[in-house]
Amino acid sequence: MKKIIHAVPNFSDGRREEVIAEVIKPFLNTPGVKLMGHFPDPDFNRTVIEALGEPAPLKKALMEMTEASVRLIDMNKQSGDHPRIGAQDTIPIFPLQNITLDECKEFIEEIAVDIHKKFNLPVYFSGENARCEERKALGFIRKGQYEGLKEVVHTDERKPDIGERKLHPSAGAIICSAGIKPLVAFNVILDSNRLDIAKKIAKSVRGPSGGFSTVRAVGLLFEDRDQVCVSMNMFDFEKTPLYRTYEFIKREAARYGIGTAGTELVGTLRQEALVSVAEYFLQLEDFDRGQIIENHMIG
Amino acid sequence: MKKIIHAVPNFSDGRREEVIAEVIKPFLNTPGVKLMGHFPDPDFNRTVIEALGEPAPLKKALMEMTEASVRLIDMNKQSGDHPRIGAQDTIPIFPLQNITLDECKEFIEEIAVDIHKKFNLPVYFSGENARCEERKALGFIRKGQYEGLKEVVHTDERKPDIGERKLHPSAGAIICSAGIKPLVAFNVILDSNRLDIAKKIAKSVRGPSGGFSTVRAVGLLFEDRDQVCVSMNMFDFEKTPLYRTYEFIKREAARYGIGTAGTELVGTLRQEALVSVAEYFLQLEDFDRGQIIENHMIG
To answer: What's the pLDDT score for residue A1?
Structure first.
C-alpha cells in the first residue's frame, strides 16, 4: 500500500485568477499527486488547496507551489478578511494512508528547511511540530498578522523557528505543521434570523466557554437566506462526532422554539466522519468498515 | 480508470473447510482480483463470496472457482437450509466502476457459455439476463430445488437457457446474472421477543404485501439475544434508502410500545448506502461525494 499524505496549504490570494491558477498548477502536473479541490475566497483574499500525494511527488508540488506564491504575492499590497503572515501562509499536512504522524512531522521539517534555503522564507512550526506550547495553534503565531509581526519578529518571543529574526521583504513568513487529522468545518443552520441566539448556542458548543473541548464555533448570519448559523471547526471528529454537535445544537435551539433548517460540510472530510453518523442514527451494531465495497478499491 | 465488476457467487458448501478453501482460492491467487470476504453458513450449507475484479482476471477466477465447486460438491449428497439447484449455485455480478450494465450482461453471458462448454453444466439466466419475466428472480428457477428440478428439467417451462434438458449428474445447474446493484441485507432488531409482532411489521414493510416495492422482509427470532428482528433484503438502496425502512419499522414498532434495540448490515454495501443515511439525519445540504477524501484514492 502506498504512503499517502493529505495536505491543505493556504495561500494569500483569493482574487486574481491567473495567480491562483499558477499556484495550484503543480498539483495538476505532478504524477503521484492529486488535487481534490481548491477554494478561493475573495473576501478572505485567500485560497485553500486540498491535495493528496505520495511523499516525494507531494514534496515537489509543495515546493513549486511555494515558489509561485513567493514570486506572485506581495504581502505589502495584500489585504483580506483572514489573518495571515505570508504569501504561502500555511502548509498543514496529515497522515492519510500507510504513514505515521512521526513520518509526517519529519516530512514537513525537511520541506521547511528547503523552503528556507531556497526562498529565504522564515518558518514557524505549529501543530505537532510546534517548538513550544503557545505555537501549537495558529493564533499566537499570527498575532498582529503580517504587518504586526514585522515589528516584533526580532524579539525572543516571536522569532522564527528557522531563519533570521526578520521577514521576507515581500512574502512574509510561512507556518508549517503536521497534525493527526484535519478539522471538519460543519455549519448548522437555524430556521431563524436571530443572530443573538446563534451566538449563544455557538458559545455553549465550543470548548473554551464550557462546550466540547475539540470544537470551536461562532454564530453567523447568512444574509442570502435570512437565517443564522452555528459555524463550527471540529478538530477531532472521532472524539466528538458530527452527530453529537448536531443533536446538541438542535436541543439548544429547541429551547428557543427554533428548529434546524439544514447543515453544511465545508471542504473535505474522511469517510469515517459520515459512517459514524450513519452508525449512530441507525443504531448499527458491529459494523466493519471492510463491509464498504469502495474501501477495497483503495490502493 | 479501471473497469471493475463486483461478483457475489454462492456455492453449495458451508461446512467442509478444505472444500471452501479450495473454491475461494482463485480469488486469492489472481492478480487484478480482490476477495472482500467469504461467508460460510453451516446451517445453509452454503458460502457467499464477495469479490471485485477487472473483467479478464475476474473471469479467470470465476471459471476456476466453478471448476472447484463442480469437482468437489456432489449435489446427490448435499443438503442444507438454503434453496439451491447446483454445486456452484449462482454467479451474480454488478457493475462497480467504469463499466456499464450492458457490458456486465455480455460478460456473464460469455462466462455462462464457457462454463457450459468446459463443465457440461446447464445454465439458467436470471436478473437482467433473464430470457423471460418469470426467470428474473430466483424463486421460479429454484422451485423444487436440485431434487425437484431433476424431474422437470426436460419440460419447456423449466428447461435450461444453455444446455440440454438435463442436469449435470453431480453438480446440478448454475444460475448466472447481471444486475444494476447488489442487495443490502439489513436487520432491524426489536427490543422484544414477540415473533408475531416482528412478522406483522415484516409484512407491512415488504413490497408484495403493500410496503416498499424494493424491499422483501421476514420476521425472525434471534434466540441468543431473545429478541426478534425484521430481516430485510433491500434491492435498491437508492430508491428506498436505509433510513426510510429504519424509521418506518421504528414507527410501526412504537404502535406496540416496542423500541428498536439495534440494527445489523450483513455482507457488503456501497458507501452511498451509508452516506445517504448521514445526509438525511444531519439535514445535510448540497453535499458533494467528492468532499470525501477516500473517494480520491480510488483508481
So the answer is: 86
Are A243 and B282 within 8 A, CB to CB? yes
- Is the Cα torsion angle A190, A196, A199, A203 positive or negative in sign? negative
H-only helix segments in chain B: 17-29, 55-72, 101-119, 138-142, 145-152, 195-205, 242-254, 271-281
- Residues A104, A189 within the same domain: no
CB B274 within 8 A of CB B263: no
Mutation to test the A interface, candidates B1, B52, B283, most A Cβ within 10 Å: B283
Would A53 be classed as within a structural domain?
A: yes
In the DSSP assignment, the letter for residue A86 is B
> Can you give the CATH number for the domain in which B139 is found?
3.30.990.10
Q: How far is A31 from chain B (nearest CA, A)?
A: 13
Domain identity same for A163 and A192: no
Residues of A classed as catalytic: 82
Known catalytic residue at B296: no
Mark yes or no for CB contact A299/B294 under 8 Å. no
Domain boundary among B150, B178, B206: B178
In a domain, A299, yes or no: no
Contact B6, B28 (CB under 8 A): no
Statement to judge: residues B125 and B211 lie in one domain:
no
Short-list A88, A120, A68, A105, CA closest to A8:
A88
- Percent of chain B past pLDDT 70, that is, above it, reads 100
CB–CB contact B294 A298 (8 Å):
yes
Task: Note whether A14 and A86 are same-domain residues.
Answer: yes
Are A261 and B283 in contact (CB < 8 Å)? Answer: yes
Q: Which residues of B touch A260 (CB under 8 A)?
A: 283
In a domain, residue A196? The reply is yes
- The whole-angstrom distance between B6's CA and the closest CA on chain A is 9
What pLDDT is attached to residue A153?
Answer: 97
Contact check, Cβ <8 Å, B264/A277: no
Residues of A in contact with B269 (CB under 8 A): 291-293
Count: domains in chain A: 2
**Are B33 and B47 within 8 A, CB to CB?**
no
Which ipTM score applies to this complex?
0.90
Q: Which residues of B touch A247 (CB under 8 A)?
A: none
Residues B252 and B279 in one domain: yes
**Which chain B positions have a beta carbon within 8 Å of A37's beta carbon?**
290
Residue B135's domain comprises 4-178
Cell numbers standing for residue B193: 421477543
SS3 label, residue A218:
strand
What are the tens digits of pLDDT across the range A180-230? Answer: 999 999 999 999 999 999 999 999 999 999 999 999 999 999 999 999 999
CA distance A267 to chain B (A): 6
Residue B97 cell numbers, joined:
466502476
Q: Give the pLDDT confidence of A14-61 residue by residue, as tens digits.
A: 999 999 999 999 999 899 999 999 999 999 999 999 999 999 999 999
Do B174 and B78 reside in the same domain of the chain? yes
Q: Say how many Å lie between the first and final Cα of chain A, rounded.
A: 6
For an interface test with B, the pick among A4, A247, A269, A291 (most B C-beta atoms closer than 10 Å) comes out as A291
> Which of A160, A178, A196 is the endpoint of a domain?
A178
Confidence (pTM): 0.89
Does residue B121 lie within any of the structural domains?
yes
